[in-house]
C-alpha cells in the first residue's frame, strides 16, 4: 500500500484562508489515543482510505495525541511530522533523492527518514506552535486554518525575528528553517516557495527585513477595535501608547504624581517605567484605557480576555482595515519608533536630562550613570538608550531591531 505522504499528495487540500472541514472526533475529546487510532482519524480527516496509513502503524515510537476541535495548534504540526516520519522511516533517503532528481532535477525528499531528524523537527514545530499561541494569539488549529497565506508568512518572519533576539546560532537556525519548510510545506505546498534562498539566508544570517514590523495604518485598526469591543480597544491602545508586552498589560500601574506608568516585574523580572510628563495627551488616554480594562477585569480574568476575545477581535479589525495581521507585538514596534522620532527632535541637553532621570529612578549609582553616558555619547545614541530603557531591554542592539537602525 502507498505511504501516507503519497496518499496525501493525491488529495487537493483547501487553500489557507478558508475554514477547513475537520474530523468529527468529539468522542476522542478527553481521551488520549495511540498513533494507530490517530492514523485512522487522520485518514478520515483527509478523506483517505484507512489502508493509506497501514504501512506506518507499527511505529516503534508511539506519540500520544489528543484530538478535538479546540486542539492546540502545535499538535497539528507534531501530527504532520509524525505522518511524514511514518511515510519515510522505511524508505532510503538516497532513493528519495534519486527519484526527485529524475523527476525534477532536485535532490529533495518530502518525508522524514530518521528518528533523529523527526525528533528535531518535532521540537522545532512545537516551539513554533508555542510562539504562535503566546505571541500571535493563534492558539488552536481553527485559528491557524483561518490565516491567509500572507498571514502565515508574517508569522514565519516574526518567529525568526524572535529567534534572532534570543541569540540562536546559525546552525540552530538552519534546523528551524528546514523543519518549518518541511512541515508547513506539507500543509500547503505554496508555502515552500517562501523558503527561497534569499529568505533562508536572511533568517539564518540575521539580516533584517525592513517591513512586517508594525501596522501601516494602526489608527484605522484602533477605530475598528473600538467598534468591535471596547476592552480589546483599550488593550491595544495601552500596548500602542506604552510599548507594553501583552503579558504586562494587566500589570499597568499609574503614577499620577510623576506622570509615568509602571510595569512591575516585566520580562526577565525587570521593572519598567514609561514617562509621560512631555506626552500629556497620551497619558490621559492611557488612564482612560486602564479604567476600561479595570472594569472588564472585575468580571473575568485577563487570560480569558486575551485568549478568547482580544486576538480574535484584533484579527477582525485588521481585516476590516485591509491590513495583514501581525499580532499585538506590532504595537510595541510602533511605540518605539514613534517615541524615538519625537525624542530625536529634542535638544541634546533635553535628551540627556531625560535619560539621567530614568537611570536615577532605576537606582543607578553616579558611577554607573557616568559609565552609561560615556557609552551612549560615543555612539551618539542617547535617544536610542532612552527607548531601550523604556522598552525594558538590557541591550541596545535589541532596541535597534525595533527602531530598524543599524549599529553606530
Textual characterization of the structure:
- The protein has 408 residues and is mostly helical.
- The strands form two sheets. A three-stranded antiparallel beta sheet has the order 3-4-5.
- The protein contains 18 helices and five strands.
- 58% of the residues lie in helices and 4% in strands.
- It folds into three domains: 4-205, no CATH class; 213-327; 344-408, no CATH class.
Portion of residues in beta strands equals under 5%
Termini separation (Å)? 61 Å
Radius of gyration: 24 Å
* Uncertain segments: 1-39, 41-69, 207-212
Order of helices and strands: HEHEHHHHHHHHHEEEHHHHHHH
Can you list the strand order of the major beta sheet?
Answer: 3-4-5
User: Quick one: overall form?
Assistant: globular
- Counting structural domains, the number is 3
Task: Give a quick precis of the structure.
With 408 residues, this protein is mainly α.
Which terms summarize this structure?
408 residues; mainly alpha; 3 domains; two-stranded antiparallel ribbon; 18 helices
Amino acid at each position: 500500500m502507498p505511504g501516507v505522504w503519497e496518499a496525501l499528495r493525491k488529495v487537493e487540500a483547501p487553500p489557507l484562508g478558508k475554514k477547513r472541514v475537520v474530523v468529527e472526533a468529539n468522542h476522542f475529546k478527553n481521551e488520549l489515543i495511540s498513533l494507530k487510532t490517530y492514523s485512522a482519524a487522520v485518514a478520515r480527516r483527509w478523506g483517505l482510505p484507512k489502508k493509506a496509513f497501514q504501512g506506518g502503524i507499527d511505529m516503534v515510537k508511539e506519540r500520544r495525541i489528543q484530538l478535538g476541535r479546540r486542539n492546540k495548534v502545535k499538535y497539528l504540526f507534531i501530527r504532520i511530522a509524525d505522518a511524514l516520519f511514518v511515510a519515510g522511516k522505511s524508505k532510503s533517503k538516497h532513493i528519495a533523492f534519486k527519484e526527485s532528481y529524475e523527476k525534477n532535477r532536485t535532490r529533495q525528499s518530502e518525508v522524514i527518514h530518521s528518528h533523529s531528524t523527526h525528533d528535531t523537527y518535532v521540537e522545532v514545530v512545537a516551539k513554533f506552535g508555542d510562539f504562535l499561541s503566546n505571541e500571535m494569539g493563534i492558539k488552536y488549529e481553527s485559528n491557524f486554518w483561518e490565516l491567509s497565506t500572507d498571514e502565515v508568512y508574517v508569522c514565519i518572519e516574526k518567529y525568526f525575528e524572535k529567534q534572532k533576539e534570543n541569540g540562536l546560532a546559525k546552525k540552530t537556525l538552519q534546523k528551524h528553517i528546514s523543519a518549518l519548510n518541511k512541515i508547513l510545506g506539507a500543509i500547503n505546498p505554496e508555502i515552500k516557495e517562501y523558503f527561497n534562498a534569499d529568505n533562508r539566508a536572511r533568517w539564518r544570517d540575521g539580516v533584517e527585513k525592513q517591513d512586517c514590523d508594525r501596522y501601516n495604518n494602526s489608527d484605522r485598526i484602533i477605530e475598528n477595535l473600538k467598534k468591535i469591543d471596547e476592552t480589546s480597544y483599550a488593550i491595544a491602545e495601552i500596548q500602542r501608547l506604552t510599548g507594553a508586552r501583552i503579558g504586562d498589560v494587566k500589570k499597568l500601574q499609574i503614577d499620577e504624581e510623576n506622570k509615568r506608568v509602571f510595569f512591575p516585574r516585566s520580562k526577565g523580572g525587570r521593572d519598567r517605567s514609561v514617562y509621560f510628563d512631555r506626552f500629556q495627551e497620551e497619558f490621559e488616554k492611557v488612564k482612560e484605557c486602564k479604567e476600561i480594562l479595570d472594569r472588564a477585569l472585575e468580571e473575568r480574568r485577563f487570560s480569558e480576555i486575551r485568549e478568547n476575545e482580544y486576538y480574535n477581535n484584533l484579527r477582525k479589525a485588521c481585516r476590516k482595515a485591509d491590513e495583514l495581521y501581525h499580532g499585538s507585538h506590532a504595537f510595541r514596534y510602533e511605540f518605539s519608533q514613534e517615541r524615538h522620532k519625537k525624542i530625536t527632535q529634542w535638544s541634546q541637553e533635553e535628551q540627556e536630562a531625560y535619560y539621567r532621570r530614568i537611570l536615577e529612578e532605576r537606582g543607578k549609582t553616579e558611577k554607573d550613570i557616568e559609565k552609561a553616558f560615556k557609552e551612549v555619547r560615543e555612539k551618539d545614541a542617547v535617544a536610542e538608550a532612552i527607548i531601550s530603557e523604556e522598552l525594558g531591554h538590557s541591550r541596545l542592539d535589541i532596541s535597534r531591531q525595533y527602531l530598524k537602525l543599524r549599529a553606530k
